[in-house]
Each structure stands twice: as structure tokens, then as C-alpha cells.
Amino acid sequence: MKNIYRFKVGDFAPSESTRSYTPEGYLKCVNVRLGKAPQVRQYYAYEFPNLEGFTADQTINVYTPAEELFKTEAIKSWDGVDTTDYHPPKNEINAANWKDYHIGYCENVRQEGEYLLGDLLIKDKDSIDLIQNNERLEMSLGYGATLVLEQGTAPDGTVYQAKFINFIGNHVALVKYGRCGGDCRIGDEKQTPKGKTMEVSVNGIRFDIGDNKPLADALKQQQDQLENLKAAKLKVGDKQFSIGDELNAVQAVVDQLHTEKTTLEQKVGDLEKNQMTPEKLEQAAAERAAVIADAKALVPTVKTEGCTCEQIKRDVIAAKAGDALVTALMGSVAVGDAKPEQIDTTFRALSAVKGTHPSNPVADALNHQQNINAGDGKPSGGGEEKTYSKEDAYKEI
């Protein structure tokens, strides 16, 4: 369903018109190009109050069809309207304000090719001076029209988002720079140079480039590419964005995708690092076999089947809870609360002294060995020679 809005609009925009003075000192300008169609012009959304679906600073391409501008009733509506120096408030001349803005009249309005032409009679002395000093040459139509939100492509290939229909003329305004472009302005054949001149617009600023057609063509090509880019759509996943108007939203999605990609790459790296290769399997099997062997040597009844290496180590340490080495290394920490590295250290210490007498394994664990000899010969007082083994030396007295 199309959305239709009604607005008062001012078309801020070299004609072969001529200028002459009347006996009263008024300036007569004939064959003035007032408007042009078909044409796409740019507006800001804030120029159309209550327009939905656009941000205030968003640019809208609005199409003026020739069949609308040159309707018989539309042309007649401009015949006899006031001429103003710039547009009045709300783009409307009426009985309440005409004395403040009226500087002359527009008459004999007609179509000539793609232009709407008219003759101006300028009565205001200040406005005449501005025209003659080339300060106010361009024309801007003031009118009421219906704005139809409609996507389309103009005959010149320009994409638009809305179009004007049902024009009703209200006034014509003299402006320094009109939205219609340099085509629509007051000219003077006597002041027009013989050499052909061209005007181009770059970022809204117009430049006279003389007869440099290659430059004009190049700039036109760049402008067309820019307009096409603004109208282009970019699809990111299941979302679609207008490149010209939604770059911030596109950037947000791209940033999110980049973050997700970085996270995924990190996860893949972790998986690859922890991947169980044949070499790692062999190493893990050997380590488990060593743990089981050490555990069985320490606590023959310990359960190993279906248990992790850490659980086996904890069960062994729990079984050895009264051992001096366990007490020295674990302190007051319960086996269930101990960190894996503490469990591993204690288990390794127990394994290092397995096979020694369990009542005093600290010496062997710390590589402190004492070989005690009671004597190399017979003991004092006679009797048979007696030596003491390491095992006897550790026995409690």
C-alpha cells in the first residue's frame, strides 16, 4: 500500500531568456525556465513533516514526472502567481503575507520541451539589482503537491524513493542556488558568452567547467556510481541493509560477525590442541599404566577399573591418610578439597618411596639416606661381631 502525503514545497534550483526595462523601471525577463521534468531532485526527510520511515537527516530522491508537471491544470496554476525573493514561510503566498514577499509577477506560463517557461515582471528595485548583479538568477517553484512513497527508476536511470503528483502552483522564487539546477534560471542573451559552457555539481556545489566535456562526462559517471551505491542493498546473513542509509547498522553486524569468528577460531584452536592423536593416546595409556602400577604397589586393594587417574590418586592418598608424608604434604586439607596439583604432588611423593617402611618414608622421599654401622669389628666387651642393617636402623626403639 502506498503512503501519500500532502506538502507545500519549494524547489530550490542557462536559459535563453532576455532582460529589458519598462518605462517604469521594472525589469522584464522573458522565456525564463521555471522548472524541468522528468527530473529527480534530492530532499531531506525533515522537509516533509510527519513523514514516517525516514530519519530527519536522511536524503530522499523525489521524482517529478513530466506528465504531472505539464498537466494543463498544473501549468495554468502558475500563470499569474507572485514572484518572491526566496520562498516565504511554509512555501506559501496568501492574503496575509503577500505584501511582505511580493516583488513581481509570473505570467504566460507554458511548456517548451522538458522545461516549464514563463515571463517575469520584477517591480522591486532591490530584487532588480540582485538580478542584474547575478546574485539572484536561479528559479525555484513554490507549489502544493502530493508526495507518494514509491520505489522506482527515472528515465535517466536514477533510482527514487518517492514522487510528486497533482501540482498546484503558488509562486515562483528567485534564489541563489535552486534545486532544479543551473538549467532553470534567468538568462540574458546579450550577456551569454559565445563559447559553450557547462556546469557540474560535486557534493551539492556547482562549478562552471567551460567546454570541458570529458571532465563533465567523468564527473557524471562518478555521480551515477555514487547514486547507485546509495541505492544498493547489502545482504548480511538473513538481514538486508541499504548501503546509503544504514552503514552504522551494517558495521554493527560486521563487528558482531568478527567477534563470533574470533571466538570460534579460539574454540577450534583449543579443540585442535586437545585433540587425541595416536601419539597422545599412547602417552596417556602409558601414564595411566604407571599410575595404576604405583597405586597398586601402595594400596593393593585400590579400585582402578572405570576410575580416572586423579580419582585413583585420591583414593590412594585417602587410604594413606595417617601416613606422615601425607600429613606433611596435605596438612589439614581434606583429600576431597585438595587441588589436582596437590594430589599429584602427594601421590608422586608416596610413589617415590614405595617399598620402604611406611612408618618413616620422608627420608627416602627427600633422598636422605643414612647407613649406620654400629662397629667394624667386635663390639666392646667381646662377643660375636654384629652389624646393623638399614632396615634395623629405622626400627623404633
> Helical proportion?
25-40%
List low-pLDDT spans: 189-195, 356-397
Structural class based on helices, strands and sheet pairing:
alpha+beta
Number of domains: 3
Oligomer: single chain
Relative strand content: 25-35%
What is the terminal-to-terminal distance? 106 Å
Order of helix and strand elements from N to C terminus: EEEEEHHEHEEHEEEEHEEHHHHHHH
Structural write-up:
- The chain is α+β, with helices and mostly antiparallel strands and 397 residues long.
- The protein is 33% helix and 27% strand.
- The protein has three domains: 4-192, no CATH class; 239-274, no CATH class; 289-365, no CATH class.
- The chain is built from twelve helices and 14 strands.
- The strands form three sheets. Strands 1, 2, 3, 4, 5, 6, 7, 8, 9 and 10 form a ten-stranded mixed beta sheet that branches. A two-stranded antiparallel sheet has the order 11-12. A two-stranded antiparallel sheet has the order 13-14.
In short:
This protein has helices at residues 66-69, 72-78, 98-101, 125-132, 213-231, 247-274, 278-298, 309-319, 324-330, 340-352, 362-365, 390-393; strands spanning 4-10, 18-21, 27-36, 39-44, 59-64, 82-85, 102-112, 115-122, 138-153, 159-175, 198-202, 205-210, 233-236, 239-242. It has 397 residues and is α+β, with helices and mostly antiparallel strands.
